[in-house]
Amino acid sequence: MTMMRRWEMEGIGRDKLALRERDVPVPGPGEVLVKVGAVSLNHRDKMVIETGRGLPLAFPFTPASDLAGTVVQLGEEVRRFSLGDRVISCFTPEWIDGSRPGNARSPAYRTLGGFFAGVLAEYVTLPQDWLVAAPASLSDAYASTLPCAGVTAWFALVERGHVRAGETVLILGTGGVALFGLAIAKLHGAEVIVSTTPDKFERVRALGADIVVDKRSEDWIATIHALTLDRGVHHVLETVGGAHLGRSIEVAAVGAKIHQIGALAGFDIASPVMPLLMKNVSIHGIATGHRRALEDLVRALDRTSAKPVVDSRFALSDLSLALDQLDEGPFGKVVIEMARQEGSGDDR
Fold first, then answer.
1. For residue 194, what is the domain's CATH number?
2. What is the pLDDT of residues 9-28, one digit of tens each?
3. Are residues 141 and 182 in the same domain?
4. What are the backbone dihedrals phi and psi of residue 57, each rounded to the nearest 5 degrees, phi first?
5. What is this structure's pTM?
6. What strand order describes the sheet that includes 252-260?
7. Contact indicator for 286, 261 with CB cutoff of 8 Å
C-alpha cells in the first residue's frame, strides 16, 4: 500500500480539519512504521483542535496522541522492535524515566498531538524509543487507551502516591482517567469511593467501586466524612480543578495525597490554606507519566484481568461524531478504529 488517510488541521477549529490522502511515510534511521489499529481520544485532543492551547503547532497538523498498532517496517538501526510487534505510543515521548524534562522557567510540554505531530492516520512513523510493547491481553481498541489516561492514573496512584491495601481513594467522575484510577486502586487493594451522578451508580459499582456518592448533592462532603468515620480519604484523584481543590482538601485525611490532574473547572486552582496546612496534605501535580511507568502498567494489565472501559468506537472518517461524544461526557474512553466502517460508532 502506498497511500493512506490522515486527519490534518490547516488552522485552529473543527472546521479546519480535513481527512486527506497522503503517501505512506518511510521510516528513517531509528524509526519504525506502524500500521495504526486504533487511536483513543482525550479531552486534551479536543482542546488542541478547538483552541490550539497556545501550542506551537506546525500546519498542516495531525492531532491525537494515543495509538495502538503493529510494526510493519523497520528503519536502519532499530533494535527495540521487530516486524509484527504490537506497540502503543508514549504521550510524552522524550520522558523515559526519572524526573520530567524541563526546568523552573520552562516546564516541558513536548507531547504527541500537541508539540509533535499526532497519530490520527492509518500509518505513522515514530522513533523506536517513543513506543512500548502493547499488552498481549488487550486488543488495539483497549490498548490505545493506555498512553495518556491509563498512565496518568497509574503515575498518580502508584508512582507518586504509592497506594496500598487498606487506604481509601476518592475518584471524581467517570472519564477515562477516573475509571483507570478506580481499576488501579482496586488492583492494589484500596477501598474506592466514586463521586458521580446517580444514573452511573450501578455502572461504577459493577467496576468495583465500594462506595458511590452523588456529586451534585449539597452534603457529599459530609457524607464522605460520615462514611469514613471522620478519618477522610488517603488519596484524591482530582480531575476537576478550579475551586474544587478546596473541596477535595476538605475530605482529605491527615497526611493525604491529592493528585491534581484535571482542569475541567478551570486552570487556576484555589483552596483555603488552613486545612491544607493543618492536615499536612501533599498536592502532586500530575501531567501523564514516563515510559517506564507505561511499561509497568502494561505488565500489570497482562498479569491481571483488568480491562479499560471503552465508551464508544468510531471509524476514522467519523472524527466529528467522536468529538461530539467527548462533549457528552463519556463513561470511559472514546476510540477511533481504523477497521471500523463509517457511521458504525457504538458503545461496546
1. 3.40.50.720
2. 999 999 999 999 999 999 99
3. no
4. -75, 130
5. 0.94
6. 211-214, 191-196, 168-172, 233-238, 252-260, 282-285
7. yes
Closest CA to 259 of 279, 287, 231: 287
- Segment 183-203 shows an average pLDDT of 96
Q: Are residues 274 and 322 in the same domain?
A: no
Residue-wise pLDDT for 39-66, tens only, equals: 999 999 999 999 998 888 999 999 999 9
- Does residue 344 lie in a domain region? no
Sign of CA dihedral 28, 12, 335, 134: positive
Q: d(Cα 322, Cα 40) in Å, to the nearest integer?
A: 10
Co-location of 210 and 245 in the same domain: yes
C-alpha cell at 77: 538501526
Q: Label the pairing between strands 191-196 and 168-172.
A: parallel
**Segment 339-345 long-range contacts (CB within 8 Å, at least 24 positions apart):** 339/37, 340/313, 340/314, 340/315, 340/316, 341/315, 342/315, 342/317, 342/318, 343/315, 343/318, 344/313, 344/314, 344/315, 345/312, 345/313, 345/314, 345/315, 345/318, 345/321
Which residue carries 478506580 as its cell?
182
Q: Which residues does 186 contact at the CB level (< 8 Å), separation at least 6?
A: 192, 208
Domain assignment of residue 223, yes or no:
yes
